[in-house]
Amino acid sequence: MSGAREIRQRIAAVGKTRQITSAMQRIAYIRMGRAQQRARQVRPYSQSLFRIVARMLEQHQDHRSPLMAQRVPAHRVGMIVVTTDKGLCGALNTRLLHMCITQMLSWQAAGREVSVTVIGARGLGAMRRAGARIVAQAVGVADLAPDDVTALMGAAAVPLHQFIDGRIDELFVATNRFINALSFEPVLARILPFSRELAELPAVHAGEVAVPYLYEPEPGPVIDALLLRYVETVIYRAIVENAACEQSARMTAMKAATDNADRMIDELTHQYHKSRQEAITRELAEIVAGADALRSG
C-alpha cells in the first residue's frame, strides 16, 4: 500500500495548491472590478483634457510649447515601460517586454540612442538583462490612489525633463491596453512631441460649438501647463489600464491553475482507487492461496 499512500500525499498536496489558486482567483476578481472602474474613470478625463488642449492650440496656432518641439531626425529616443510588480498573471509581462526589447534593439541597430524608464518591478530585471540604459524606475505604483499620483511623477518626470531639455527627441510609452476582462493587448505609442494625430478624439465633436477661452494673464503658460498635465495623465492612464489588465490576467491564470488542479485531483483519485483495488485483490488472492495450501497440506 506504499503506492496508495504516496498517491494520497500527492492528492493532499495538490488540494492545498488548489486552495491557494482558488483564493487568489477570488481576490483577483475583486481587485479586477476596482481596477476596471478606475481605468474607465480616467478615460473621459484624459479625453476631455485633450479636447481642451486641442481647442487652445487651434485658437493659438502660433504658440509653440516645449512639449511640441519637432526634432528631425530623431536620434535619441525615450521609452516608458509599464509592467506589473507581481507575477502569476500569465504572459501579460512577457508579451509586452518582448515587444519593448525587440523595438529597442531595432532602434539601436538603426543608430538611435535609447533611454528607458521602467515602472513596475517585473520589467526592471528584464530590461536590465537586455542591456537597456535605465534612467529612472518606480515600483509599487499600481495601487496608488489618484491623490498619491505625485509619488509616481518623480520617475515619470525624468523623461519629460529629458525631452524639454533636448536630451531626447521622442518619447514613447509601452503598456497593456485594457479591452475587456478576457482581452488586452500590448501597445507602444508615441506621446511626445505632442501633436493632434496622437490623440484618439478630434478637437471638436460634430455639433459642438468651440467657445473661445479667456486667459489671465496670457495663453502661453496656461497651454504649457495643460499640455504637461495631459502628458502626465496619459502616463497615469497607461498605469491604471495595465493594472486592470494585470488583475484580469491573474484571475484567468489562477482559474486555469484551479481547473488543472481539479483535473489532477480527479486523475490521482482514480489512480488511488485503482491502486487500492489492486492491492485488495492481491491480498485476497494471497489469502485464498494460503487457505488452499493449508487444506491440501
From TrEMBL:
Name of this protein: ATP synthase gamma chain
Q: Could you tell me where this protein is found in the cell? A: Cell membrane; Membrane
Q: What Pfam families does this protein's entry cite?
A: ATP-synt (PF00231)
GO cellular component entries: plasma membrane; proton-transporting ATP synthase complex
Under InterPro entries, the record lists: ATP_synth_F1_ATPase_gsu (IPR035968), ATP_synth_F1_gsu (IPR000131), ATP_synth_F1_gsu_CS (IPR023632)
What gene does the UniProt entry assign to this protein? atpG
What molecular function terms (GO) are annotated for this protein? ATP binding; proton-transporting ATP synthase activity, rotational mechanism
Primary localisation category:
membrane
Alphabetized UniProt keyword annotations: ATP synthesis, Cell membrane, CF(1), Hydrogen ion transport, Ion transport, Membrane, Transport
Q: Which HAMAP family match?
A: ATP_synth_gamma_bact (MF_00815)
